[in-house]
Structure formats: structure tokens, C-alpha cells
């Protein structure tokens, strides 16, 4: 393998890029803005320009760069076709083809869903090392998950495997989810979902004194209040834990991973988020996976660049092995 590669995390707010050595060492990381105008049509050329500029700055040529791994916030199929990415304004787009038209020297480009990439990143150099199967849950603007089985990302037939945010947990809900359905997990356990639960709890417990009655309610204020023993905030975390525990029990019934990794912006609050999920998971779980460990993500916002470059390395290694096998067959 050539000595360098780039990992890219195409986010709705910023694009994170990392220059890696193929040994796995992150040499440098930086971010560029996400330009959403014109249906996100400048995003890939911005990425290619940023990579070219970095290579020039460091006097690197394509002879020493193996390729690019990229995570995008939407469903991606095996050949790198993004199936509608609302956050970036994309419809259906084959990313490798579009990038290679911009820079034919990029021969190897691996594209995947950003949460799937982050899961691999955490298994490689983060909180879930030494495991070959894991489910990583990201809690933030939405609720997502990445599924890795036998060190391979499981994408599903339409690239939507792991979309647990749209698992129906309350069929009686009357408000619509962003996906158009009712009662999705995301409506209660995302950042806005948690605020939604808090407002319900405050209404249901008018007698309970609570810090949440003063000032703006945010996931941070809810977590802080729960840490201080606030009754209403603790009830919010209980309900959050019940829903997440229930959903992850369903995930464990089908995937049975070695470990669950809890990440995303909300997970930065730490144990106050992790503990209720773990508690209710153990209560609802089938005995054969009741003790599945739960860990917090460790790479933070870098998980995506680590994982996307790791996917590229895995693909290159696989190709090299196949070539070797073909050569051996020819020798016989
Ligand atoms: Zn939904």
C-alpha cells in the first residue's frame, strides 16, 4: 500500500478531512465549510480542492497517496451511490464516479454512511477496540446506528440498515416524524426528542419542583439537572432509557453484537446518558445477550475520518488478496 490516504467526513455543518499514514496514524486534520447552495453541487469539488491544496502544501503526489475514504450522512449502497441525502441536498448520486470525473488520479475511493464509518473508526482506534462486531448508536440531531459484523459494515439491501431512529416505538403518537411516520424513536431520543419528553414530564408533574422550569430546556440542561438529582429531569432520563433500552434489545435480538458504543453529541454528557440505556437494556434483554457491554465513544467527531479511511484500507487489502489468489491460481 502507498504511504498516505485521506479520510473525509461530509457533515451537514462542516466537512472534516484527515491525512493519514497507511499505518493508521493521523498526521493532520482540518475542516472546511459545508456549502449547501445549489443542492450541494459544490461539495465534492470543495473536497477535491482541499485535498489537492494539502498535497501541494506537503509536497505529496498521487504516487504516494493510496486513495480517499468518505462518510456521508445518508443511506449509501455498496458501490457508493448515495440514495437521497437530505442534509446535503443530494438526490441519487454515485459519489466515486463524480469524484473521479473531478480528479481522475483518485483511483480508489470508498464511500459509506457516516455512522457506519464512525462505528468502524471506534472499533479500530476508539472505545470498541478488540471486537469484531459492534453496534454504535449516535444521539444528536437524529438517532442513528452503525452495524458491523465480522469487521464488515452491514448496509442492508437499500443502504438503510441501522436506521434505528425510525423504529416505531409509539404507534399512538399524533405528531409526525421528519420521515413522515408517527412515533419514531428519534421523536423522543434525539436532542429535540429529549426536550419533547421534558416538556411532557413537566406538564404531567405540575407539583414537582424542577430546575427545568427556569430558562431554556436543552439536552445539556436536562442532563445537568439529572446529575444533580432533579426529580423531573431524572424522570426524563428514565423514559429516555426505557425507549432506548427497548429499541436496543430489538437490535440485539437480530444482531447480537459483542459491544454497544454510545456516541454522538448527546453522549458527551457521559454516564447520565449511558446508564439509563444500559439499565433498561439489561431489564428487557433476553438472557443470552443480557450482559452485552456498553461503552462510550472515544474518538468524538474524529470517528468518521478514522472509519472512512479504515474502510478504504480494508477494501485495498481485499483487492490485493484477490489478486494474489488469482496469481497463485495462474501459477498452478
Ligand atoms: Zn421517523
Characterization of this structure:
By secondary structure, the chain is α/β, with parallel strands linked by helices. It folds into two domains: 4-113, Nucleotidyltransferase, domain 5 (2-Layer Sandwich); 127-298, Nucleotidyltransferase, domain 5 (2-Layer Sandwich). The chain contains ten helices and twelve strands. The chain has helices at 37-40, 43-57, 95-102, 114-125, 186-189, 191-204, 219-227, 231-255, 271-284, 303-331, and strands spanning 4-10, 14-21, 26-33, 65-72, 81-85, 90-94, 109-113, 134-139, 143-149, 152-153, 259-263, 294-296. The strands form three sheets. A five-stranded mixed β-sheet has the order 3-2-1-4-7, with helices on both faces. A five-stranded mixed β-sheet has the order 10-9-8-11-12, with helices on both faces. A two-stranded antiparallel ribbon has the order 5-6. Strand 2 (14-21) and strand 3 (26-33) form a beta hairpin. The chain starts with a strand and ends with a helix. Bound molecules: zinc ion. Zinc ion (ZN) binds next to loops.
